[in-house]
Amino acid sequence: MKIENLCVKYDKNIVIENFSLNLTLGEKVIIYGPNGTGKTTLLKTILGIVKAASGKIIFEDNEIIAYCKQDYPNPEFPITVEEVVAMGIKKQNKNSKEDIKNALIKANALNLQGRLFYSLSGGERQKVSLARCYCQNANLFLLDEPSSFLDTKSKNIFLEQMKNLENQNCSVIAVTHDEELIKNLNWKVIKWNK
To answer: How much is the pTM?
Structure first.
């Protein structure tokens, strides 16, 4: 994926100005900067949720994007772990149960089968969210503040999964203000300047 001179505005306010990035297949990148400076907007622009004022985002053929957002709405909604992971499957097929199981194994989350998603800890939810991404067979992962709201134990669990991504044949952009991610991951770091 290539981003060329991306500019994004909300009304007349410039949120992103002349941002460029050339992401190669398999490359892992952390975009580091304070909250409220447009990092999430960048991900939403890549996804096409937010329209760019100018600039280009160029994707490789057959780019499949998986997005892990930082918030979990409707905490009382009774959705199971398997149902969350199944959201990554575009079409129900005869192998969908096997695909879900394989994705949970890949995310080291098979022990969470059968549980309600909102009964899980923050770190466990992030593992399940990664399993959903794996189920999409995505080659580009967008992670929005993936370690936010995690206690120390949950963060350590999730860091293991982030390290596992290093061995996957996918590209990753993680946006964060968490210095611990930078210290614990040997990824390219881009300092976000608004």
So the answer is: 0.86
